[in-house]
Write a structure and sequence with these properties.
- The protein has 106 residues and is mainly alpha-helical.
- It has a single domain, classed as Serine Threonine Protein Phosphatase 5, Tetratricopeptide repeat (Alpha Horseshoe).
- It is built from 5 helices and 2 strands.
- The radius of gyration is 13 Å and the shape is globular.
- The termini are far apart.
């Protein structure tokens, strides 16, 4: 579990995971905590780091999605969402996160 500064839970995962997947989930919790603090630039960096360091995990697809949302929240530029939708056309194409981002590519 990951908590914010006020002790509120911001992310949880349960069960055994291989080391790479476990680390990706830990970092996802940290990135989501940054997002919850409205540190959108920091969250984007943290989400993209997951994609870069743990690209073969299922968590990477979620991180790619939230990186795009973080960029949009930081800049207000919808191009960030379109870019994320484009990225999903070549990466994690069968993931639920690619489906969620597909509306941004229209």
């Amino acid at each position: 579990m990951t908590f914010d500064a006020d002790g509120k839970e911001v992310y949880r995962f349960e069960g055994f995971l291989p080391a790479d997947d476990f680390l990706a989930h830990l970092y996802l919790g940290e990135a989501k905590a940054a997002f919850a603090r409205k540190d959108f630039a920091g969250a984007e960096r943290a989400f993209l780091e997951i994609v870069e360091r743990h690209p073969r995990t299922t968590t990477a697809a979620e991180a790619l999605y939230w990186a795009g949302v973080s960029r949009y929240k930081a800049t207000g530029d919808a191009a960030a969402l379109r870019k994320t939708a484009e990225d999903f056309r070549t990466r994690y194409t069968d993931s639920d996160w690619a489906k969620k981002a597909s509306v941004w590519g229209s």
